[in-house]
Amino acid sequence: MKIPIPLFLCFTWGILGVFASESGDSLKESLKFLAEKRGILVGAAVAAKPLKADPLYAGILAREFNILTPENAMKFENIHPEPERYDFADSDAIVSFALDHHMKVRGHTLVWHNQIPLWLMTKDYTRDELVKILQGHISEVVTRYKGKVFAWDVVNEAINDDGTLRRSIWHDGIGPEYLELAFKWAHEADPDVMLFYNDYNGEGLNGKSDAVYDLVRGLLAKGIPIHGVGLQMHLNAGWYPDPADIDGNIKRLMDLGLQVHITEMDVRLKEPLSKEKLEEQAKVYREIMEICLRRRCQAYITWGFTDRYSWIPHYFFGWNDGLIFDRSYQPKPAYLALIEALKN
Length: 344
Ligand code: G3I
Hints:
Layout: H1 5-28, H2 31-38, E1 41-46, H3 48-53, H4 55-64, E2 67-70, H5 76-79, H6 89-100, E3 104-111, H7 118-121, H8 127-144, E4 151-156, H9 169-174, H10 178-189, E5 194-199, H11 207-221, E6 228-231, E7 234-236, H12 243-255, E8 259-270, H13 275-295, E9 299-302, H14 312-315, E10 319-320, H15 333-343
Parallel strand pairs: 1-2, 1-9, 2-3, 3-4, 4-5, 5-6, 6-8, 7-8, 8-9
Antiparallel strand pairs: 8-10
Helix pairs in contact: 2-15, 8-10, 12-13, 13-15
The structure holds ligand G3I.
């Protein structure tokens, strides 16, 4: 059959036009495309297993985000499983993936009371031994990723909700000065990397965020190399800090000359799921993004991106679905809300 030329052209252009506009638009609509225009990094925490095994997981990460945080791969128990052995397999895989896709990496985390290897927990070490172990650990890990990791969560969750310092192997074994030592050692290993204190429940204005503020102000006053504070932002849609308080807290931290990253955001929902709950969740994601854009936070990172892989159901019975893509990788209203916030 002969197709008349105008009709043929129409048909071909139509197809090409749709293809071009779909690929172009979908890229232009990605979070990272919009975020780059607004001068903010958008990211997600990454689990090594699906990154290696699930092409859809890797594809969405590459399309949507320009910064990644290894969810577990850089934690002490995983990266330093025996006294004389480091295991960089998973962390290297995540870092290579990020760099191959022109993404930045947030290192998480050098010093934490949690996910400590058995060999550290089951022996009594002297203060000198613990100092040597922690310094060696920080130096080894930071040096390996020198020039590749853009910011480190040097100390994670060192403060209790009542504002006191948390007791931990590091606090009890070395003394409260472990905090400043950790920042100094990280800086010695990579003088160019940004160093953060990271915590939860201190996003708004409360006793805990006051304690974080006092801590980082004290470190700065002593000349300790610290460049930012990570606000984890594990929220739930029914209750979360007053946005004005989050705004005020970010402002006072920035007034100290520090950067602020949203480091682990999720907004968990009580089961069963409903349209209203998803809309409420979207509103929370949007509000925090709007504050960040207004205050010029440097990064907005969610703790995972798909409800297929999330820590929430393992830790909060009856709660789930805290992320911006659903379990089938479909964008949720929260994703669209972030797109809208970045566009406006
Ligand atoms: O890797 C093992 C696997 O080999 C084993 O079969 C399985 C059996 O339970 O456990 C796996 O390890 C789990 C690991 O996540 C990887 O999935 C651990 O049991 C589990 O405790 C661990 O949970 C992590 C949690 O930190 C530990 O406290 C979560 O994935 C991780 O999302 C979560 O992340 C923290 C941040 O680092 C700090 N802020 C809070 C945030 C949420 O708790």
